[in-house]
Amino acid sequence: MTSFGQRLRAALDAHGPLCVGIDPHEALLRSWGLDVSAAGAREFGLRTVDAAAGRTGVVKPQVAFYERFGAAGFAALEDVMSAARSAGLLVIADAKRGDIGTTMDGYAAAWLMPGAPLEADAVTLSPYLGADALHAAFSTATSHDKGAFVLAATSNPEAAPVQRARVDEEETVAERVAHDVAARNIGAPGSLGPIGLVVGATVDRRSFGLTDVVLAGTPILAPGFGAQGAEPRDLSRLFGYVASQVVASESRSILSAGPDRLAERIRERAALYRGESDG
């Protein structure tokens, strides 16, 4: 198997940067005519996978919308992620896990170990117990050709005072996280490393210290496109030199099309991004 960074680069080159979020929250389930249940969330996810396959390269299930249904919800998520990976899609589990010691070992085994029921290609992680506390996830990812995306500069406004706070006179918290991640990618095969960062498309990343130099070679998962305000035409302006490394995540703007128009909406949005990235 090739590394996660190599597989991600191939997906971006083949399909463009669009990542389709799989977010079966209650309002969307109802608008799709589905039960607000684990079975409804499973059907929602499988329909989204069918619509995304061949039209984009990456999907991102939001774990919380399955977890809320307990054991049945996790079983539904397993089916959705398995179907997506079987369809040739890269799966980023949006779980935002982060802990220390053996607890982090457990999270790494749950999401990144080959053959695990919840196996994904990558998982989102929170570094606010210290990036070094995520070592188990980083190690599991690199050992098994998996990936991870670490929160750095998120789009929710209440995060800015923490993430832009200065560790010292030269470095913000977000920048320290980015440097720690970059160190994990040294020597990785291909142009992208296995460990990426979450950088919101609606924030001024440079005010967090996340310059092109800091982000070079690092995959970037960028929520904030679509319903949150950023558009495909903004990609180059927002990310400049590192725009080709961006996985542009959209959820509501696509899922609101409903099951009958979902595939067409994905095709349309993916084409816009490809036009932007090719320009």
Automatic annotation (TrEMBL):
It is an enzyme of class 4 (lyase). Residues 17-267 form the Orotidine 5'-phosphate decarboxylase domain. GO terms for molecular function: orotidine-5'-phosphate decarboxylase activity. Pfam families: OMPdecase. It catalyses: orotidine 5'-phosphate + H(+) = UMP + CO2. Keywords: Decarboxylase, Lyase, Pyrimidine biosynthesis. SMART domains: OMPdecase. Its EC number is 4.1.1.23. It comes from the Bacteria. Pathway: Pyrimidine metabolism; UMP biosynthesis via de novo pathway; UMP from orotate: step 2/2. CDD domains: OMP_decarboxylase_like. The keyword Protein transport does not apply. PROSITE patterns: OMPDECASE. GO terms for biological process: 'de novo' pyrimidine nucleobase biosynthetic process; 'de novo' UMP biosynthetic process. Belongs to the OMP decarboxylase family. Type 2 subfamily. This is Orotidine-5'-phosphate decarboxylase. It comes from Microbacterium aurum.
